Amino acid sequence: MDYTYNRISFFMNGKAVSADLPPAISTLDYLNKSCGLYGTKCSCNEGDCGACTVVIAYVREGAVMYEAINSCLYPAAKLHGKHLLTIEALGSPDQLHPIQEAMLRHHSTQCGYCSPGFVMSAFALFAMKQKPDREEILAALEGNLCRCTGYDSILNAMEELSRTQNPETIVPTWARALEPELFRFKTPVLCFNQQSSSLHSSGAYHLPSSLEEAFSLLEEHPEARIINGGTDIMVQVNISRLKIPVLIDISGIDSLRQISLNKDGVRIGAAVTYSDLERSGIVKTDLPWLLELTKVLASRQIRNFGTLSGNIANASPIGDSLPLLLVLNASLILSSKASQRQIPLKDFFLSYKKTALAAGELITEIVIPIPPQGAYIKFIKAAKRKAVDISAIASAICLETDPQGLIKTARLALGGAAEIPKLSSGFSSILGIKPEDINAEELANLLASEFQPISDVRGSAAYRQTLIKNQILKYLDEVSRRQP
Ligand SMILES: Cc1cc2nc3c(=O)[nH]c(=O)nc-3n(C[C@H](O)[C@H](O)[C@H](O)COP(=O)(O)OP(=O)(O)OC[C@H]3O[C@@H](n4cnc5c(N)ncnc54)[C@H](O)[C@@H]3O)c2cc1C
Ligand code: FES
Ligand code: FES
Q: How many whole angstroms from 356 Cα to the centroid of ligand 2?
């Protein structure tokens, strides 16, 4: 099989581009360094500030989506088959875009460094949603920081726009005219095989379009690292100067970007993004807790390309999805060229950042059984900010009673409390009793002592112990007040 193409094709600001890229160059570096487009700003280079926000338009499930992403973390190779829109094309000094006009009217710009990012995040929102309300505006802008204006003027501008603007004028006509082209794009098997010694680049970047190709590549390159959204890996590339000789990007494999309802529960493909989860009717109906999780995980931009399977495979003790998936009894389908196996998520984490993934294997699906009706399921994340913040402690609970009111399922899991995310063993001590008969204080103390969190920048060990205890007390209080 010939994987060797080293150019990608996409549209940028209305024009067709065929680019020969250094492997793993970020879209931001591509714009700033190769295209001389400086409107997209670099500030943190790790997904936190939103100054680098651009919009990608691409076809998903028969429709063209406009999504904001952090260009500092988005490998430019992923642009293949998409339309990249940057601030340069939206408006000009003589003819501002309606979003820019609204920001001007409301004095929403001071130094201006953050403004292109805000405009692009707002553009993606208004392109996809007619007349968004304040909550939707806030959610769309939560990944953008401004150090000058104080936000109110920005929000006021967006609210006014939502009330008054004709939605048809948001996406420029030249961008709409290109949409049929996006349907015609067919993703070829791609391989950037140039050798590069630059700090920001790996030696080879492969973009297979089928699982078969991905497995062949893994076999050919045992040293390769899987990249999915890239929201964890690219931070390491940008900030820790991590050099990865070979990257295999699985995000373009359509068969991995499916959510389905099966006999064993909901199956979530490895390339499904958090935004895909938010849009899924299956998730909304059968796993609404996942939607709650996405509201506090990262930012709109990160959720547009970060994945649940990346969160799992990254195996951070503080990965936010992990406590919830553990109490939901999730399991993983691990596949390689030669075999496929299913393992419970609780057996996946071996020690700090070590997992049960064997060489040549990748997570292809996450299987989540649908919990019985009436089960009490909840997730709590303790962090300093509501958005774009890593938890100090995250926890989740699943509790179910039988018709006599006796507890028959009791699972509690914690993240940030040990070297791996894990289920509490002591929590099963409440099986067979009524929730109102639990001595909450005693149980919370007992369970908190099961975990030995460490001290780090997000909190001392003692602070974390207190959070663990208080989150457990909160759950037990809510459980005891529930109507049978
Ligand atoms: C600004 C910012 C905010 C964030 N906020 C949060 C937050 O609030 N909560 C949180 O939990 N995380 C957060 N993250 C971390 C990150 O976004 C998530 O962990 C995300 O789910 C990673 O998914 P990804 O697809 O981008 O992973 P990638 O970066 O592509 O991969 C991560 C790791 O998993 C491996 N991998 C990925 N997919 C597979 C697979 N299918 N099979 C085998 N290996 C695989 C990769 O090799 C790599 O080692 C944040 C990150 C940033 C930059
Ligand atoms: S530069 Fe801060 S999010 Fe990209
Ligand atoms: S206007 Fe200065 S950072 Fe936002």
A: 33
